[in-house]
Design a protein that fits this description.
With 121 residues, the protein is mainly α. It is built from four helices and no strands. It has helices at residues 14-31, 54-62, 65-85, 90-117. The chain starts with 13 loop residues before the first helix and ends with a helix.
């Protein structure tokens, strides 16, 4: 079932009026084939003297190559060792590797919310 906004005969607040105008404008843009999220403002362009050179970007990126390669290799070898060497069911290995990701899916946004909304001094 598709939810559609009812036509308001009587609007109760200025906020509802603004919301209806905004929705109407997005609908008109969509019908014209335009991007409804485009507000017409120009995107910020960094001044050429402030841009980071490509070789410097690559050097910064290479600093994490070793830890990432080590972590990925360890994760791949863990599956082989536990599955082939120790005979553990691959489904159980998948569940064991999935549990921390589920925990991260819950705890990371919570920690972000708390850090963003904690007011000290």
């Amino acid at each position: 079932m598709i939810f559609t906004f009812p036509k308001f005969k009587r609007l109760h607040s200025g906020r509802q009026v603004a919301l209806c105008k905004k929705l109407d404008e997005k609908t008109r843009r969509r019908k014209r084939g335009e991007n409804p999220m485009n507000t017409g403002h120009r995107h910020h362009v960094t001044d050429p003297k402030d841009r980071v050179p490509l070789d410097q970007k690559i050097a910064y990126g290479l600093g994490m190559a070793t830890p990432i390669a080590f972590g990925n290799a360890l994760a791949q070898l863990t599956n082989l060792i536990f599955n082939i060497g120790l005979g553990i069911n691959p489904i159980l290995l998948g569940i064991a590797q999935m549990l921390p990701r589920f925990w991260d899916a819950i705890s990371d946004p919570l920690a972000g919310y708390l850090s963003d909304n904690t007011r000290t001094r």
